[in-house]
Structure formats: C-alpha cells, structure tokens
Design brief:
Elements (H helix, E strand, L loop, with lengths): L1 H15 L22 H12 L1 E5 L9 E6 L25 H7 L3 E3 L1 H12 L24 H8 L4 E8 L18 H13 L2 E8 L7 H4 L4 E6 L7 H10 L12 E2 L16 E3 L8 H7 L4 E3 L10 E11 L2 E10 L8 E7 L11 E7 L8 E8 L6 E3 L9 E4 L2 E8 L5 E9 L3 E5 L10 E9 L2 E9 L6 H7 L14 H5 L5 H6 L3 H6 L18 E4 L3 H5 L4 E6 L16 H6 L3 H18 L3 E3 L22 H15 L24 E3 L2 H8 L1 H10 L3 E3 L4 E2 L2 E2 L4 H11 L5 E3 L17 H7 L35 H20 L1
Parallel strand pairs: 2-3, 2-4, 4-5, 5-6, 8-25, 23-24, 25-27, 26-29
Antiparallel strand pairs: 1-6, 7-9, 10-11, 11-14, 12-13, 12-17, 15-16, 16-19, 17-18, 20-21, 22-23, 27-28
Helix pairs in contact: 2-8, 2-16, 3-8, 16-17, 17-19
The chain binds beta-D-glucopyranose.
The site of beta-D-glucopyranose has 9 residues, from loops.
Length: about 800
C-alpha cells in the first residue's frame, strides 16, 4: 500500500509540475536547423549493421516485389529510442517501419491491413500517453485482430511480418510482467492467428532491452525469420527494409546473451532492490556465467547473428614476441552475397589459482564488405595486460594486484562464443604480478560470491566469502593532498592564459576563494540561459566575476542518442544496436558526424556515451549502454569518444561506475568484490579513458560499496587519475545526494566531493533538484580548519575546469 501511495504521489507530482527533464522526443523545435542531410544515410547504415538476424530458414532476403502483410501497431508507432536523456532528441524525420517498407523499391505492403492499423493508431483506443517523466509506456496497446482480418490479409500475400515493441528508459526499469519483459495476451493472440494463417512469418523485435523470447520455441516451426531490430533511431524503417530486401546483408551480432528464461540470468536474484544489490555473480556476468556454468540455458549466445552469406574464419598466423601476441586471421566469403563479418578473439584462461570464466572476449574487428569468393586478413595485437586477472583475496602471492596466472592460455577466433576455432596457445610458466594497485573501494561487510571447484574435471558450483579490507582511505587522501599554490593579488585575465603570457596555474593564484568555489559547480539549472535553449546546464564562467575575467561558460547537452536541445537534432540508433555492429570504424565515423552537429549548435560537452554494463536484461537504460561485456563497451565507447572529439568538442562517458539499474537509481548501493569491479565494471571505462582521452567524465548517482560515486576518492582520483592517467574533468550526474564524509566528518556535500576529486557539481543548485544559482556554502565552510578543505584542493578543481575553458576558446 505504501508503495502504491508513493507511486501515485510521484505520478501526480510529475504530471502537474513543470518537470525540467520531461521527455519531448519528436517534440517541435525552434530556430535554425543545423542537421546535415547526408547524415541520414550513415545513421541508416549503422542501424542496419546493428540489426541481429537470429533465425532465417531461407525466406530472407525477400524475393523482389514480395508483398507482405504487416501486423503489430508498432510498425506504425515505431519505438525509435528508449526514454529519458538518452533518447530525447527533437527530430521530425523519423521513418516508421511501415513507411520504410513503403519507401523500399522492392517490397510491397498490404495497404488495406496498413490502413487498419493506421486507423487504430490514430483512434482514441490506440492513444499513446508518453508525456510524463518516468511513467512512459513500456508497450503500446495492441489492436484486436479478428480471424477474418487475418484471413483476408492472406489473400494479398503468403508472407506476414509481426512486430513486437517495447521501451524502457531512465527512471523506467523494464519489469517482469506482460507488456514488460513478457508478451501481452493480445500479442500471443496475434502470433497465434498469424502463424496459423500464414505459411511464412517474419518476427521483428523492436526493443532497447533483451526481452523474453522463450515463446519462439512454441512457434518454432512457424517462424521463418526472427530479427532483433532494437531501436534504430530516426532511420529505423529504412534500415529494416534494407535488411529484409537484401540491399544490406545483415552483420549484427548479439552483445548480450539471450537466455531461455529470466531466472537463468544469475543476476536475477540480486537485481532491482531500492537500497542495495549484492553482485553475487562476481565476474560471471552474461556469457561468462552461461559458458562456465549453464550452457544449456542459452537461447542465443553472445556474438550470435546470421548473414545471407557464409564466412570461413581461419587462423593464419600466431606469433609470440616479447610477451606480445600477434594473431592474424583470414576471413573468406564462401557464400553468394557480399557481406561483412565481425571477428571476435576470445581467450580461455587457465584456472590455476583463480576461478576463471570459460571464455573471455579479448578484442574484435569488423571486416569491410567482402565479395563472394574474396577474403580479408584481420590482425590482432595482444599484450599481457589484456590477459590479466585481479586477485583481490590473495590466492596468488600477489594480493590486490593484476596477475598473469600460470598455465595455458588458449586463443579462439570466431563470431559467437559458441562458434570458434583455436588460433594458438600461450603458456605462462609462473604466476607473475603485472601491477599492484592495493585495495580500492573495499567492501564494508563481507559478501558471498559465486565460484566453483573442479573434481576430476567435473565442475561444481560453489560459493566463497570475500572479506572486507581495513580502511586506509583517510591516510591515503592526506598523504596525497595537492599543494597550495600561494595566492597573489594579480589582476590576471584569462586572455593572458590564451596568449601564453601566463600559465593556468599562474592565473589560478589570482582567484579568490569565492571564485574558486564558483568554478567547482554548475550554474544551477538545466536549460541554462548561458547556452542554447534545452541544454543540460553550464559550468566554467558561470558568474559575472569569472565572465569579466574572460572565462567562458561551458555548455553541456545530452546525450547518447544525439543532441537533446530545443533544436532539431539527429536521432541515432540506440547504444546496444550500435554496439551490435561490432564496427569501431563505423561508430567513430557516425559520432564524428554528430560532432559537426554539436559544433553548429554551440554545445561544448555532449553527455555521451553511456557505457554501463548490462548486468541484467531489465536494466532501464540498457538501450543506451552497449553490452554485458566490458571489452565491447570500452572499445565501442572509445570509438564514440574519438569521433565526438574530432573537432575539439568534448565527450563525457557516463555513469562511472556501477549504475546498472534504474530502481532507486540515485540511492542504491552496488555491493561488489574488487575483482568484479576491476575485471567487469571498471574495465570498459579503463579502455575508453586510455584509448580515447575523454575531456569530461560523469560519475554515477549511486553508491559502490557504501560510498556515493560522486564522493569517491578511490574512483575519481586513485583509479581514474593515478592509475589510468586520466587528465580530464570529472562531473557529477545531475544533482547529488547530500552526505557527510566518513573519514572527515566535519566535511559534507561539496567539500566531501572536491576532496574526492570529483570536480564539478552539475547542474549546480543547493540541494537535489534545486535550481538556485547560489552555492550551499559547504565547500568553503571547513576552509582553514584542521583537515578541512584546502586551497590546493580547490585550485586543483579550478585548474581542471580552466583547461576545458581554454580548450573551448582555442577551437
Ligand atoms: C542522467 C544523465 C544525464 C543528466 C542530464 C541525469 O538524470 O542520469 O545521464 O546526462 O540527467 O540530463
């Protein structure tokens, strides 16, 4: 009952308040339109390369001029993206599936059936209410089909397409109900009657999350083809039409395992709690669990995806030189259609001291378009860092270190985790320490995690206890406090920095405590008057004093699917779909083109990419993120960052680091071992930071092992900067929870944050959802006190902010 009252109150508050975050996808826009008309083709190409063909009995590609009857109202009201800041782009150029098919030169549609659905979609019964933040529909009401409608449709063609649509989003988890993870009664009725009537049935799933597909077993013989088409952005319709017609040969591969049942996902027992979730599965996330413990529970494995042609992937060369491994692979098109192939390199590590996943992805590449009979060589270069494991409990002599365990490392090449060929082996004779990092973000209480033992080669699931470490954080912080730079009375201007007359460090000496404080927070609100309408907020030169010195405001805007402003923007395919391309080059090119749009709209930092791990299929923001695998997440995010930053603007990977669910998203605690952190949840960010140098990075709302990410010194300083060498700025997610430091109890909120090396509070304001322009005073209240905030810490933040400001003026 309590829950019901709370949800109702929340609903009313959202409905009747002017929510600054309200979803306006497809909403109207004002002002000039700076979209590049040529961008559509690239979006369409990326979208179609991300569509995954799960089944095909030969019906696809469709014969030329094939007439199809399309069932399912989402074909008309296509779900182009997920909800919230990761999908909310104002575009007036979305092309639905039905329209995409209509525009295709080679597919004909049953227009009478299309009219039936179009009428339903515009009727009162078919009305879609998607205006209230966090209450968006996960499905759209389906039209009632009668047997005679379906039988009549059959007179037009022997081939039907059935489309199932789902959406989830920010603050809108998917749920284990009909209309959420499961199909609706009406959808089953539609499948029943269509599969009974038509000989050939193609199913298209239009969803940002993985949804239940167990029902495909029931209709198995009746389903001619099954496509996971995700949420393809504004070019959704044309990209699917190109796949169906064969104009583009499908080459998308799953970046998540599709299990037979929800319960088969190991995280399902520990997901969705408002307050705390123990990551019991540890490193065994996604295919790492299924391939190690439960192969029989998989419906479609990680990396699965069909093509209209066949490829032979053969190892060509395997060489070990100075600890580095070079692997070359020949990919030959042995079929009849030109096509591309994703080539994955996997390793099976020895489980000498530490339990290991049966298989781990190491790297991947996508081929160019290969003509029938032709081949391409793909090369991988691997170093020992890519093969390490993290010992968090001292099973090797090197506790809290990345280690290379002794034994044989077997390398496999192929596509899915199930379709591989051995490429070579590498033997490590002794367990060695590759890097000692110490204990970081330790558990506050011991937890139990999944493990195994092997008796005579027979694997048995077991559990093991992971103990907490003694806290050393306070001393580590005090030992590494940045030095104060003595203040001066100089009246420097920022222009002097630009003209190289003085350094940023010199300039900072002339800033007052109040000015330093202003540089550590955003201007106060979304839609900041300092930037274009619809922006997400501003930082940098936010006060008159700073502006008078020549410091520019830095304007931020969402997000992963394109620019979220009150201007027309291009709506990209969702993150998961982009990752399913396995095509780093294409993603970089796509985001580079988006970078041009950013330039035209005067935005400095785009709050993208979203790159948290798909820990569970219900995760509301999975659509924005890339994969259950950190290598895919890291490499695809790097490509996006490189593309976005081509013209000098900044990307902002998010949400660092354990933001894996929307339930209680800004208060729950992700409780996990340091090994799971290092090998899974931090790994993608590490790759992204090291490969692509983002200039901004956003920490998550929630906690990791009891510490809010926006106060976590271990995350923002120790791991990100000291270990990975990150040189950019760290900003909070939009508003943060008030809290006191455990180590320095006199410090709270902004002092606690700046001590944690989290530079800028976004979008500013005094409290959660507060839009006032003043600060809450907490940063400087301990200045001058024993162990209070220091000048050096405030200057450290200011220097980082000013580097971004200098970059802006240099562009
Ligand atoms: C989201 C971020 C987003 C920010 C600004 C937050 O609620 O979690 O991903 O960038 O809002 O819109």
């Amino acid at each position: 009952m309590d829950k019901f009252i709370r949800r109702t109150l929340e609903y009313l508050v959202h409905k009747f308040s002017r929510n600054p975050l309200a979803q306006t996808v497809g909403g109207t826009a004002e002002g000039e339109d700076n979209r590049d008309p040529n961008f559509k083709e690239l979006m369409c190409q990326a979208g179609s390369e991300g569509i995954v063909l799960l089944e095909n009995n030969g019906i696809l590609p469709l014969e030329e001029n094939k007439c199809v009857s399309v069932f399912g109202r989402v074909a008309h009201n296509y779900m182009y993206c997920g909800y919230g800041s990761g999908g909310d782009v104002r575009t007036n150029t979305c092309t639905s599936l039905i329209e995409g098919l209509r525009q295709s030169n080679t597919i004909k549609i049953n227009e009478e059936l299309a009219k039936f659905y179009a009428d339903f979609a515009t009727s009162k019964k078919g009305y879609i209410d998607d205006q209230v933040w966090g209450h968006w529909p996960r499905y759209y009401k389906e039209a009632k089909l009668t047997k005679s409608i379906v039988e009549h449709a059959k007179e037009f063609s022997d081939t039907a397409i059935v489309v199932i649509g789902r959406a989830a989003g920010e603050d809108r988890e998917n749920i284990l109900k009909a209309g959420g993870f499961y199909l609706l009664k009406e959808e089953f009725e539609m499948l029943d009657v269509v599969t009974k009537t038509f000989d050939k049935v193609i199913i298209i799933i239009n969803a940002g999350n993985v949804i239940d597909l167990s029902w495909t077993e029931k209709y198995k013989d009746k389903i001619s083809a099954l496509l996971y088409a995700w949420q393809g952005g504004e070019q959704s319709g044309p990209q699917i039409a190109k796949i169906l017609s064969g104009e583009i040969n499908p080459s998308g591969k799953l970046t998540d395992t599709i299990a037979k049942n929800y319960k088969d996902y190991i995280s399902s027992k520990n997901f969705g709690d408002q307050d705390a979730n123990i990551y019991f599965e540890d490193i065994f996330v996604g295919y790492r669990y299924f391939e190690t413990f439960a192969k029989d529970k998989v419906l479609y494995p990680f990396g699965h995806g069909l093509s209209y042609t066949n490829f032979e992937i053969t190892p060509a060369n395997f060489e070990i030189k100075n600890g580095n491994i070079s692997i070359t692979v020949t990919v030959k098109n042995t079929g009849k259609f030109a096509g591309k192939e994703a080539v994955c390199l996997y390793v099976s590590k020895p489980d000498s001291e530490l339990p290991q996943s049966a298989i781990d992805l190491v790297d991947f590449e996508k081929t160019d378009l290969i003509n029938p009979g032709e081949e391409q060589i793909i090369a991988f270069e691997i170093n020992e860092n890519q093969l390490t494991s993290f010992d968090d409990v001292g099973k090797t002599p090197f506790k809290n270190s990345f280690v290379l365990c002794k034994g044989t490392y077997e390398f496999y090449i192929g596509t899915s985790v199930r379709k591989t060929t051995k490429a070579g082996v590498f033997t490590q004779h002794e367990t060695t320490q590759v890097k000692h990092v110490g204990s970081t973000l330790p558990l506050q209480n011991e937890i139990t995690r999944l493990s195994y033992t092997k008796n005579n080669g027979v694997m048995q699931e077991t559990t093991e206890i992971v103990k907490t470490e003694l806290a050393t954080l306070k001393q580590r912080i005090l030992d590494n406090l940045p030095k104060d730079i003595p203040q001066t009375q100089n009246n420097y201007t920022f222009k002097q920095v630009l003209d190289n007359e003085i350094t940023i460090e010199d300039f900072v000496t002339s800033l007052s405590i109040e000015e330093l404080e202003d540089l550590s927070r955003g201007e106060g609100m979304m839609h900041s008057p300092l930037g274009m309408d619809g922006n997400a907020g501003a930082y940098g030169g936010i006060s008159k004093k700073l502006q008078d010195k020549g410091i520019p405001a830095i304007i931020t805007a969402d997000g992963p699917a394109g620019l979220r402003l009150k201007r027309y923007g291009s709506l990209l395919p969702c993150g998961t779909q982009l990752a399913c391309t396995f095509n780093k080059k294409l993603i970089q090119e796509l985001f580079e083109t988006l970078g041009k749009e950013i330039a035209a709209y005067g935005v400095d930092v785009i709050l993208s990419p979203g790159m948290n791990i798909h820990r569970n299929p219900l995760g509301g923001r999975n659509f924005e993120y890339y994969s259950e695998d950190p290598i895919v997440s890291g490499k695809i995010a790097s490509a996006a960052v490189k593309g976005l930053q081509t013209y000098g603007f900044s990307a902002c990977p998010k949400h660092f680091a354990f933001n894996n669910q929307e339930t209680g998203r800004n208060r729950n605690d992700s409780i996990l071992s340091e090994r799971a952190m290092r090998e899974i949840y931090l790994k993608g960010f590490e790759i992204c930071v090291k490969e692509s140098n983002p200039k901004n990075l956003m920490v998550a709302y929630n906690k990791g092992n009891g510490v809010w990410c926006h106060y976590s010194y271990d995350l923002a300083q120790k791991i990100l900067r000291d270990e990975w060498g990150y040189e950019g700025l760290v900003i909070t997610d939009w508003w943060m929870q008030s809290s006191k430091s455990q180590e320095f109890p006199q410090m709270k909120n902004n002092a606690y944050r700046v001590r944690g090396s989290v530079d800028v509070l976004m979008p500013g304001g005094k409290h959660f959802f507060d839009h006032s322009k003043e600060s809450d005073g907490t940063l400087i209240e301990t200045y001058g006190q024993n162990e209070g905030i220091t000048l050096g810490e405030m200057q450290r933040t200011a220097i980082r902010v000013l580097k971004v400001c200098k970059d802006k003026l240099r562009k």
